[in-house]
Amino acid sequence: MVSVKVKLIEGGKLPEIKSAEACCLDCYARVPNGVVIEHGERALIPLGFAMELPAGYELQIRPRSGLSKKGIDVAWGSGDSDYRGEYCANVINNSHSTFNIRNGDRICQCGVREVPAVSFKIVDELSETERGCGGFGHTGI
Length: 141
Prior knowledge:
The protein is mostly beta strands. About 5% of the residues lie in helices and about 35% in strands.
């Protein structure tokens, strides 16, 4: 188990695991006056907490599937282990109506993930694979 220090911002709430085997934690909007996001617009929504992650870890901010189904998306984001500010969700309204966010609404989810240290080696060639250079849509529909 990884220990993470969390600082709650005034009015903030600790992210919560909502089921026994959930891989991410629900995060809550810290918007005392609420926020309205018009169709096609986006807004940064404060989440009410800051973290001190161990070196080699990141905090991933992700959309909630139930909101995405309704056209309310959250741009994926990564919080680095040296970041100490309040986390926010970049909420995007792709629905056909306005979206109202109230203080305390579950607006996104987050997960703490280990990030391996990497080094790069420049080479002239890469190994062959069956996929090769096949990119977007290369496997068909």
